Amino acid sequence: MKIMYLMFSFTMGGTERLVADICNEMTAGGNEVFLYIVNDLYDDSLLGALDKRVSVFLQKRPAGSGGRIDTMRRVAGFIRKHRVEAVHCNSFDTPELLMLHPILFPKTKIIYTIHGMGQYQAVNRLRRWYRNRICDRIVAISDSVKKDIEAYGAAPRKTVTVYNAINVSKFSTDGRKTFDEKRIVIGNVARIKPEEKGQDILIAAVARIKEKNPAIRCYFAGAAGEGQQEALSKLKEQAKRLHVEENIIFLGNVEDIASFLHTLDLFVLPSRSEGFGIALVEAMASGVPCIASNLNGPAEIMGDETYGLLFPCEDAEALAKKLAYAIDNYGECLKKAEKAAVHVRQTYGIDDMCKKLLQIYKGN
């Protein structure tokens, strides 16, 4: 089958890494795969992780420059030229690039995935109508996201849940760090975007437990994207103000996430908004004890607290208490983590996800 993945950008992030894994899995399954990236925002190392058989097209439109009509024309021409059978949109506004679909490529299936909670609330009525009309299926990454988008106008007859997934072969519990209560290492993997990813909440929590754990370290793996340099500076200022600047380390982009996870005692997802949590699933697959915001998406993954610990969203004091509990009861948390690793392998494998997507692409 000829499948095209349509993205505005392809920088190092959870959604982009997922799309790379999907492209590779679909290619390995004998499909002809195209990745069309509109803007000039892409990561060479992420492109390098793609199977050589994936056909990549870089339009290189300057980000924020407009030119949507020209892009619509170019996308339509690409689809017609390559006789694409299914277009899968994974960037939020990409369906609007397919307005020529009814005229120029009416037989092509249009699939659209929503990757976060609360996003559809901002979509006006006309755009909701358009997406319901043009999309053959609207995919939600969790049941929580499905309920959310349907509440804000996505047609229930077209919505379906397909959980995000990971390439489980990349993650292993072997080589995990040996616990040392005198040198606790906490980690987080996310773009620097505190209004969504909550890095400031974790910094505040670390400050609360530092007195009892003075050698604690907290590593943030993730780059500051376009327009987020000021946010990174504010996080560093917060760490200095709370006297934890030596305990908080910003690593920037980390390519080898699997190796990074093996350096951790605890993984924390302090997000303010999260429809799923790819990084959380990766940490669980690695057997790292996890603590996450009690949002619908992470709670769904964690089976409430079957596979880890949850804390009330935005409550740094509550997170500090969960961190202290995990440190004092590490053996108990490690048992949860071992169950979590098995659960992830059974539930969130990229091969199963791609089988479900392929059925959707074929109209089943």
What this model shows, in words?
The chain has 364 residues and is an alpha/beta fold. Helix content is 41%, strand content 18%. Strands 3-2-1-4-5-6-7 form a 7-stranded parallel β-sheet, with helices on both faces. The chain has a 6-stranded parallel β-sheet with strand order 10-9-8-11-12-13, with helices on both faces.
Question: What is the topology?
Answer:
Blueprint (H helix, E strand, L loop, with lengths): L1 E6 L6 H15 L3 E8 L4 H5 L6 E7 L6 H15 L3 E4 L11 H4 L4 E6 L10 H10 L2 E4 L2 H9 L7 E3 L23 E5 L4 H4 L1 H11 L7 E5 L7 H13 L6 E5 L4 H5 L4 E4 L8 H8 L4 E4 L2 H7 L6 E3 L4 H13 L1 H18 L2 H12 L3
Parallel strand pairs: 1-2, 1-4, 2-3, 4-5, 5-6, 6-7, 8-9, 8-11, 9-10, 11-12, 12-13
Key features of this structure:
364 residues, alpha/beta, six-stranded parallel beta sheet, 41% helix, 18% strand
* Overall pLDDT confidence: 95
Unreliably modeled segments: none
Counting DSSP E segments of at least 2 residues, the number of strands comes to 13
Largest sheet: 7 strands, parallel
Distance between the termini: 14 Å
Question: Quick recap of the structure?
Answer:
With 364 residues, the chain is of the alpha/beta class. It is built from 15 helices and 13 strands.
